Structures
1.
Amino acid sequence: MKPTETLHKLPGIIARDARSKISGRIVGGDDATDGLAPYQISLQTDLLGNNLHICGGSIISDQWIVTAAHCIDEVPTENLTIVVGTNSLSNDGQRYELQKCISHENFSRETVKNDIGICKVSTNITYGEKIQPIKLPSSDVEAGKKALLTGWGYTNFKARRAPDNLQKAILTTQTLKQCNRNLRAFKTILPIGEKQVCAYAGRGTGGCPGDSGGPLAINGTLIGVVSFGVPCGKGYDDVFTKVYAYVDWIRGKM
């Protein structure tokens, strides 16, 4: 397979199915302050010979991270590593190899449902000021709440530009009714269900390719995993896997 063909098959870089308007997923964000999201990880692959960022994720223990299923289900685990403890992709931080990755058994690329997975590191993650786990939720998320999105996704979708510095944006959680109405033109992924959560920041801001698998957080609790969005920053809701719906699944697999 040619390098360019491989690149276009990598999760989080380019949408990989017929629904070309749906991105694997921050445009309109700002540089995150150092240590703002100490749970943030960069999921990287060496399939092109270099360590290339493909998705985000979150530290949930010293052995496990959570990300999107579409980030890990088609890439061999031996070709994946994570980087923690840095806001800069050019500053490696601490790199860890992965022992295994588990995608949700009911994950569907057609409906983008159950888009969640976890990976175990080969050696325990060493915590520090800039490396900390994020809490799993103990209650469902309410609509109308401000949530923090972080990631290294494209800041300019047309130019396919990914930032070196971690980006942040504040989104507002939406009701399912609001979300389904806003996304009504994209029937192949509807309806958005109870195990998903939508968030919105207005036209010009939102998740983009490379943000996939990353965290949506409220008060240091992981409420969502970036799943997908329609073209970046075009005024549509971003869709996340609702972590609260999968807490038992996560703990059962750890």
Note: Confidence is low (pLDDT under 50) at residues 1-9, 13-25.
2.
Amino acid sequence: MSVKNKILNDLKKISDKGKAVHLSRFFKTGKGQYGEGDIFIGVIVPDNRKIAKKYFKEISLAETEELLRSPVHEHRLNALIILRLKFEWEEEKEKEKIVKLYLKNTKNINNWDLVDLSACYILGPWYYKNKNYSQIYKMARSGFLWEERIAMLTTFYFIREKDFNLTLELAEYFLTHEHDLMHKACGWMLREMGKRDIKPLLVFLDKHGAKMPRTMLRYAIEKLPQHIRKKYLAR
């Protein structure tokens, strides 16, 4: 039996119809919603992660890519956890293959949880080290929601390294974005930046706070002292 099929069997054994219904609603899979048509089998992330950890050294990148192209959400999530684990474990040449595979399959990284558990752990360290941001800019300007979120979440790694320039640049670029998932992503990254250094956050808020989407603003100021939050919310 292939490693991929072992993973599929393990996921099937712990699938739950009730959880599948809940997850389908939570991740907005209805007609016209951002996760329209996605299929859930009802496996929670901690259990999925255990299965990925069990097989990530054994499974090939080719089989991992097959998982990533599955119509089932938990299969794709498992593939992304595997890629993240492989990226941390493998040598530089293999890391490059993982990055290329990831970028080739962004259409399958198509919900916020899939983006958030992978982008900053795979693309983040790769582009931070290589200092070539052209692919990040390309995704940010793609007009495809999930690539836009991937670009923004990639900067989380930069934030952890206390390099805020790319985060600030993309947050400014996305100020006029229409989707609340991008408002949340940008606000979240600004908040994380502010937790490490409040000064660039306050400069950004002074410049853009009055025109920031309300959700982005609320996310960005969440950890600030109450009197500062009130000041920006009153604008």
Note: The first helix runs from residue 3 to 13.
3.
Amino acid sequence: MARAIARVQADWEGHLGEPVGEITLSGLPSALTHLLPDALRELADTHPGIVLRTHDVDLAEHEFAGLTSEVDIVIAHSLVSARPAGTEGLTVVPLAREPIDVAVADAHPLAGRASLHPTDVVDRQWVGVPIGYPFNSVLTSIEHVTGRDLDVVQRIRDNRLIEAIVASSDQLALLPRYTTPRNAGITLIPLTGVETRRWVVAVMRPDTAERVAVRRVLDALKRTDEGRASPEAGTPPSR
């Protein structure tokens, strides 16, 4: 029934010639930082009848799907699959792929390296994320490749706090390439030998995905990533 109602609403929006209405969106801050500002500008210019209401959350991968009962679009991520854990039966639309790099302080001995392998970082102390959060899968992969346990001394959700700790210590962390500030006192270095690119996706109820206004929001989010998918955008910040 909900899907049928959504189709009727989509047909009505098409009849009006312009998608309108309020769309609610929730997602992790680092992905929203990458996608949302330009998408908001585009929507204001091209579809002023769409009102996008956003709030940020940072959850374990399997928890994002539960938000679809509360909001129209959930921005989630995964380093394992384009369909995050727990999203079975929901509509998932890929929006972006983003590299996750090793972050070190500018003065760290590894800061001059062009790339790193798991064997280069297995003996270092790490600032990690909570168990179940997508970035933790990279740390698990490093342990698998090297056959050794990592020394994870902190587990923190907030990237800004992680950046501050890394910049003032000899500890390592994993941070997203596109949204880590360029002048935060840290250097980002690509990690080879394990999967380090995350999928950023929109997760929705199937009936919600039928709405024309929702599809226009998704189009704007995807175009934001396409506009940044350049060699310059893919280069880790230098010191």
Note: The CA atoms of residues 108 and 170 lie 6 Å apart.
